[in-house]
DNA sequence: TCAAAAGTGTTCATTCTACACCCATGG
DNA sequence: CCATGGGTGTAGAATGAACACTTTTGA
């Protein structure tokens, strides 16, 4: 097969997660911004934000660009999720979609322009979405929760320094269950990824908690396969 | 951006794993078939087998088709690994590659046509490959070894029934370390994924081992994100 | 001095690991 | 009867969950 015979369009979409309080309970939970489709198929239904991949940008850059264009958000974390390439049935043209998932901090999330065509939804209470986007979001949720337990992505929801309570609340919001503060502390301390700072937070009606930060030398950005071990430059694949 | 402005070609390549004995030690280890490139860039260097994605086939189908065409192999397991989409620098045209990884049984692996342009290499002793293919294979190895510990993919290297020794040897070959037979047995038994058959293997100069098989209702085929929970139909993504 | 969250200690259950030991077969 | 791998038992270490208890602050 000659490659110039190909008639495949390449799209990029992103599942964006942010922590926001649930109106009723006030507890933090995962929220996702969705955009309303303007064209068929699934016109006027909610869908993941995305767009076409440009000729001169990497897939990751395309994801970041589309994410900024559709929701005005710049994520603290961005990682590829999966490439969907089944032959499209509903439309004549063939589309392959690369799905990313992203985490944004709370302050950043508030910058998201919410309007008639962009709205935040609680991740565990979504409407019927366009295409298979419900399934994709379930998968992204599974990845986020799984990765939460062995990596340091909780960092993407926090500032430079934070208390152990704040970190625990992030974990609780993502995993949707309470964690024992004592055991959580030991777990984190034993992992060796945090270093205590010399500062504490005063003002609460209780003992002031110490501020921590992640140790150096650990970048948050996901390099994909090239980053799972310390390898050097990123190159392109045939 | 209009999608008809896109000039991106879509390629599919596969990291194929099979277990074969190492000539010197006789121990089983992971081997990978590679193909010699006929064109620039990296002409005459070894690379992952692959080809272009067809307009009317899913990405998985494209991977299986190219795999059969280049190595004559039909894998027992096939799963998407990662989509590489950096802007190509060495060649003028833009290529996005979807990489798959596959497992083939030993009998099947022997069918692979080995010639001047297709050869098997021990996975932990590879030459310098074209593009970033060394890094990609490292990542595929990591995925295989990680997944070995929580899923049932070892099955892809075995026949319908097998002894616990055979299963353990698969694990040892993949993980590259010895496993305690007693503890391995209990671990597997407690996982509840195996059922003993009524048959044993006689002929050895020792107590005849029992044959086991995987329990029903668990398909080996990987459905990707759509398969991580029991969800229904596969649809296409925008 | 009291409430509340920070932080420490301890106990119990579960799991992992190493290894001793018996079993069944072919030679 | 012996060598060999199949298969079982068990003691100690490591890990994790549950929870009592002490500490330090603001009010």
Automatic annotation (TrEMBL), chains A, B:
InterPro entries: NUDIX_hydrolase-like_dom_sf (IPR015797), NUDIX_hydrolase_dom (IPR000086), WH-like_DNA-bd_sf (IPR036388), WH_DNA-bd_sf (IPR036390), WHD_NrtR (IPR054105). CDD domains: NUDIX_NadM_like. It holds the Pfam family NUDIX. Transmembrane segments: none annotated. Residues 9-145 form the Nudix hydrolase domain. It comes from the Bacteria. Gene3D superfamilies: Nucleoside Triphosphate Pyrophosphohydrolase (3.90.79.10), Winged helix-like DNA-binding domain superfamily/Winged helix DNA-binding domain (1.10.10.10). PROSITE patterns: NUDIX. SUPFAM superfamilies: Nudix, Winged helix' DNA-binding domain. PANTHER family: ADP-RIBOSE PYROPHOSPHATASE, SLR1690 PROTEIN. This is NUDIX domain-containing protein. It comes from Rhodoglobus aureus. The lineage of its organism: Bacteria, Bacillati, Actinomycetota, Actinomycetes, Micrococcales.
């Amino acid at each position: 097969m000659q490659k110039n015979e190909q008639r495949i369009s390449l799209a990029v979409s992103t599942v964006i997660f942010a922590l926001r309080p649930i109106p009723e309970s006030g507890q933090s939970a995962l929220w996702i911004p969705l955009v309303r489709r303007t064209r068929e198929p699934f016109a006027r239904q909610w869908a993941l934000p995305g767009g076409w991949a440009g000729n001169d940008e990497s897939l990751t850059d395309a994801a970041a660009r589309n994410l900024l264009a559709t929701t005005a958000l710049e994520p603290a974390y961005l990682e590829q999720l999966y490439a969907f390439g089944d032959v499209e049935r509903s439309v004549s043209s063939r589309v392959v979609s690369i799905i990313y998932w992203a985490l944004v901090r709370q302050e950043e999330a508030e910058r998201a322009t919410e309007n008639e065509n962009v709205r935040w939804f609680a991740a565990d209470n979504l409407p019927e979405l366009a295409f298979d986007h419900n399934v994709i979001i379930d998968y992204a949720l599974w990845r986020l929760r799984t990765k939460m337990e062995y990596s340091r992505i909780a960092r993407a929801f926090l500032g430079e320094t934070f208390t152990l309570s704040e970190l625990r609340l992030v974990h609780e919001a993502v995993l949707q269950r309470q964690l024992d503060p004592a055991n959580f502390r030991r777990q984190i301390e034993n992992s060796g990824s945090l270093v205590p700072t010399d500062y504490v937070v005063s003002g609460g009606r209780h003992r002031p908690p110490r501020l921590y930060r992640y140790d150096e030398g650990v970048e948050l950005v996901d390099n994909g396969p090239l980053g799972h071990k310390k390898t050097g430059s990123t190159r392109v694949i045939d």
